[in-house]
């Protein structure tokens, strides 16, 4: 899978700056590559779509300040499920909105991440953790979304 096969859309983040009604931030990822490749990457331990508990969402800054790579990884195997280029400012705005949403609700997840292909939603997970790494691979705690009580 190539990073160019993905598009990313972020919603429900504007309410934070505007002081509006909280809405769950969502990262929607669209894939326009070969179906069988994506299906095999999304397969979990029981050949169904990988569960939310089996995945981690991460962002790694590149050396260029405003660029990076968003990835979903399989927590069980350590394999990349997918990765795509994403604007750093957009990701950081998203994390701020997810953090604020978590402060306004007792919802299970602070944000939602979806993966679609040809208009079909293949994955939809509610998540609370979003880890951000610098270009050297070190965790950047002040930008990461880490639920209370979680030790890394």
UniProtKB/TrEMBL annotation:
Domain of life (superkingdom): Archaea
A Pfam family the protein falls into: DUF5793
Descriptive protein name: DUF5793 family protein
Species of origin: Halococcus dombrowskii
């Amino acid at each position: 899978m190539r990073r160019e096969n993905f598009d990313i859309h972020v919603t429900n983040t504007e309410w934070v700056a505007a002081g509006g009604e909280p809405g769950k931030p969502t990262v929607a990822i669209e894939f326009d590559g070969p179906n069988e490749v994506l299906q095999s990457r999304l397969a979990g331990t029981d050949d169904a779509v990988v569960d939310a508990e089996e995945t981690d969402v991460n962002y790694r800054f590149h050396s260029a300040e405003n660029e990076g790579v968003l990835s979903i990884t399989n927590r069980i195997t350590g394999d990349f499920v997918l990765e795509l280029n994403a604007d750093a400012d957009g990701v950081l705005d998203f994390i701020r909105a997810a953090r604020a949403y978590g402060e306004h609700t007792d919802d299970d997840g602070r944000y939602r991440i979806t993966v679609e292909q040809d208009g079909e939603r293949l994955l939809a997970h509610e998540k609370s953790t979003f880890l951000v790494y610098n270009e050297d691979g070190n965790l950047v705690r002040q930008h990461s979304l880490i639920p209370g009580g979680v030790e890394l």
